[in-house]
Design goal:
- The protein has helices spanning 2-16, 20-25, 100-103, 153-182; strands at 29-31, 39-46, 52-59, 62-63, 76-83, 86-91, 95-98, 108-118, 123-126, 129-130, 132-139.
- The chain is α+β, with helices and mostly antiparallel strands and 183 residues long.
- Strands 4, 5, 6, 8 and 11 form a five-stranded mixed sheet that branches.
């Protein structure tokens, strides 16, 4: 049975093109060897416009987004962020905006967790424990429906672009005819 499992893993690696880096991403951890061990804490504050601002306060850790998915270097990397146990993604800097409307979060209490990861995505550990922090926060408002949300910058850019196309593109014919008729 053990040979069958190893064979399936080897076949998956060769067929799906998993590199050793992808395999490392799936579970390796890095016990910090530095004299000053990495540590992390979280501050979650309500954003007046919407959602929450998350401050990831790290110690003895260097944010290295330019080396994500590369070889591990002790003391540097990025974070992974989770909402109620579900991974939201990677974080490459100490600040993150949690858009509760986009996530469709209903009123209630939620738990946010981050862990520090090496460049190769292996989680940092100190004395065998993951270097992570959790914070709870309270959503008090229903998420805004998409059709009732204020126009975002990208929507506004589309509207301005469409108007410009009409005025200067197809509308240029009308503008030109108006100028000719004045002569």
């Amino acid at each position: 049975m053990k040979k069958l499992v190893l064979g399936v893993i080897a076949l998956s690696i060769s067929v799906f093109g998993f590199s050793s880096m992808a395999v490392a991403h799936m579970g390796d951890s890095h016990e910090s060897q530095a004299d000053l061990k990495p540590a992390v804490s979280l501050e979650v504050t309500k954003d007046e416009i919407g959602g929450f601002n998350v401050h990831i306060i790290s110690e003895n850790f260097v944010w290295a987004p330019e080396r994500a998915s590369m070889e591990h270097v002790d003391g540097e990397g990025h974070a992974h962020i989770y909402l109620d146990g579900e991974k939201l993604g990677r974080v490459y800097a100490p600040w993150y905006h949690l858009n509760t409307s986009k996530l469709g979060l209903k009123p209630g209490t939620y738990e946010l967790m981050v862990d520090l990861n090496g460049n190769d995505h292996g989680v940092y550990t100190v004395d065998g424990e993951n270097v992570q922090a959790t914070a709870t926060f309270e959503v008090t408002e229903e998420p805004m429906a998409m059709n009732s949300m204020p126009l975002g910058l990208t929507t506004m850019q589309l509207i301005v672009g469409a108007v410009a196309l009409v005025v200067f593109g197809a509308g240029g014919f009308v503008l030109g005819r108006t100028l000719k008729s004045r002569k």
